[in-house]
């Protein structure tokens, strides 16, 4: 199985807050941190040092996806945000990026195993997909 954490954050959100939220999400979903294959977010978050630091701490790749890769998942989001759409071009970052990257890595359909959760400055969602056969 491929497990991906999708993350969104406000400007200058720190890695500590992102890590605490990620770990809370994994606990809630009953999943172990070692199952994570990658972190995903919007390319609009490319300058967010907290995301890059989190990926470094966890030794996981961080994929920053363009809005065109996130838009097809709008119908699968638990909620949409006009603010996220304005800032990133996508109506949601955490859920859409988790789904998009999990599907790309698995070469097949993914599903949300935990919808978006929030902290003061960040969002996190978890998506899982079976490993593709191709």
CATH architect. name:
2-Layer Sandwich
Mean pLDDT: 93
Backbone CA Rg: 13 Å
Strand order of the largest sheet: 3-2-1-5-4
Low-confidence stretches: none
Q: Give the count of helical stretches.
A: 5
Let me know the CATH homologous superfamily.
Answer: CobE/GbiG C-terminal domain
Helix content class: 25-40%
Write up what this structure looks like.
By secondary structure, the protein is an alpha/beta fold. It has one domain: CobE/GbiG C-terminal domain (Nucleotidyltransferase, domain 5, 2-Layer Sandwich), CATH 3.30.420.180. The chain contains five helices and five strands. Strands 3-2-1-5-4 form a five-stranded mixed sheet. Helix 2 links the parallel strand 2 (36-42) and strand 3. Helix 1 crosses helix 2 (49-58). It is globular and about 35 Å long. One of its GO terms (biological process) is cobalamin biosynthetic process. Residues 3-127 form the CobE/GbiG C-terminal domain. This is CobE/GbiG C-terminal domain-containing protein. InterPro entries: CbiG_hydrolase, CobE/GbiG_C, CobE/GbiG_C_sf.
